[in-house]
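DUF2867 domain-containing protein structure dump, as promised
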Amino acid sequence: MRVTSRSLPDVLRPFAQGADHVDVKTVESQATLRQFLAGLMSYQPVWVSALYRVRAVFVRLLGMRQHGIPQQRLSRPVDIPMTPGSAASFFTVRHAEEEHVWVVSAKDTHLEATLAVVVEPAEGPRRRFHVVTLVHYRNWAGPVYFNVIRPFHHLVVARMARHGASAG
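structure tokens r here:
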């Protein structure tokens, strides 16, 4: 099934309007939303840090900048910001509903990326977590950049989702 902005939950539709790329990774877990997010946001093995180093060279070729390499932060559930406007690593919280949805975004000169986690009840104590990525290109470098990193994006986000699911 192809994911479109119309197939997303209502709460995400305003963020998805006009998106150039939409993808969803789904995992199940007994974690709470905050536990899941703490695991998701804490995921940064050495190979991901190495990808950021390669990215720094690539973005310079496109005339952009990378402001350092994000440092791994071991988040605790209580540390997850739920207030719109709050910082969550290099993201800004855009919308949050305790135990239901968390939406963050990051803007750069070439694109705006939105990451959302939507919780859906599943069987028994388990929940289904949908990790949604929305990308809006802002100039010519957006599609060039994203199409080069797209395979890594899918790998990293899928691993982040699994790491979040293991937090429960």
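The longest strand covers residues 111-121.
lmk if u need the other ones
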